[in-house]
Write a structure and sequence with these properties.
Strand content: 15-25%
Order of helices and strands: HHHHHHHHHHHHHHHEEHHEEEEHHHEEEE
Shape: elongated
Distance between the termini: 83 Å
Number of helices: 20
Structural class: alpha+beta
Number of strands: 10
Radius of gyration: 28 Å
Length: 491
Amino acid sequence: MVWAEETQESCRTKARNFLTIASLGIPLLIFAMGVSCSSIQSHYVQVDQALAKGKPEVADALVEKHKDEYGKENQVLYAMDRGMLLHLSGRYQESTMFFERAEHMIKDLYTRRISSEAVALLINDNILPYEGEHFEQVLIHVIMALNYTYQGLFDDALVEARKIDHILNVLSDRAENTYAYTQDAFARYLTGLLFESRGELEDAFVAYRLAYEAFQLHHAVYGTSIPSLLGEDLLRLSVALNLEEEFEKYQQDFPDATWQSPDEVQEFGELVVISFHGRAPKKTGEFIDLPFSMRALGMIFATRDLKSSKNGRVAQNILYGLTGNVFSVALPKFDSQPSKVNHTEISLIGGGKTKTVRTVLMEDVTEIAKQDLDDRLVWESSRAVARAALKFALVKAAEREVAQATDKKDLGRLVGFIATLAGSITEQVDIRSWRTLPDEIQLARVRVQPGTYELHVRHVGRNGKVLDEKAFPSVEIAIGELKVLSHRTVL
């Protein structure tokens, strides 16, 4: 009699425990709906429209207005968006403040990543705090260096250049030939510019040499051409530093390069124009359905056409829940938003003369983003499959135990249905990325006699036609001065 009472109480306890497990399915569904509905993507259309009108300050106000939509897990992304748009608005101190905030948060998140990863393995990566892609973290310091340069704070800009060097060295040490993004050609070149502007020619030469090595890597991986102006810099500094072997090497590598001697350069001032073209790639995603039985495999084939629409995907998830043996994995991908601009022509008008130069490609942000994600595809896929397998195991355990504890198979199946549906809906693609970056970064460098110059900019399309033309405020360039300017077009 005592045994019977204990057995009944044990069964009731088991039933309560596993009904509690089953009830978790409803909160999971609600949570999943919250994740899917709390998108931070909606305002980017308006941001792009404001940038297209040449109003970065309006774009920044839009991001600030939508701050709450970013949520606590996306504060790094919010800081990066604000930093970039404030930079384009000419509010360099405020821009730097937001980038410094992003830098500190990234360091803090790195130390707390392990505990968050465990939870993400059960739900999805959207619950992880966004800490930026590796190339995005480097570009934070690139834009900060530009902020300081525009304010004439070259020593502070060089601090950022050294941070860039440290980050790239760490990436290179970690990669072990696994990842393509271990160097950043534009960041290295900018570092060389800054060192040269301060008269630190040996450091400048090292930076240009590293930029050359990075461009060789970028050419092989991303198809980015090695700019001839880099050859001019290497040849000029080889002479200035009496590096005869290096001079001969770079003469062979850049046979068509025309360059000025160090003595000739001293008689001029210099203008560098950095041109941000187009829009960063948009991160989207795709779902891959994993069957855990032959019946489930048949269900996948029978419902494969439902994937094409959002409502169809919901219906498919419900059917998968009824089957109980299908789980989906979500994998991110980047969709290109290529710029229409081939290059930008900059005309300096002054002293009765006009001098025109064109920009060259320094950084293909889109290709770097896509390749960086492709390099992580095996890791991303293995995590997604592990997450699906874990969800499947938990669902089957809950279904089996509830059925045994209550002696009701239908209740067990209901638990399995709810948990499977929750697992499918919580499988969301992490589509977060730094959307206010450009598609490409181009640069032009020109030496001119000291004086005041009118500045005209023309964006030339892939077909050779002028897409847009603007006049900028006059610039005054002194002898020996390095003046750096930037502008943005979303064309």
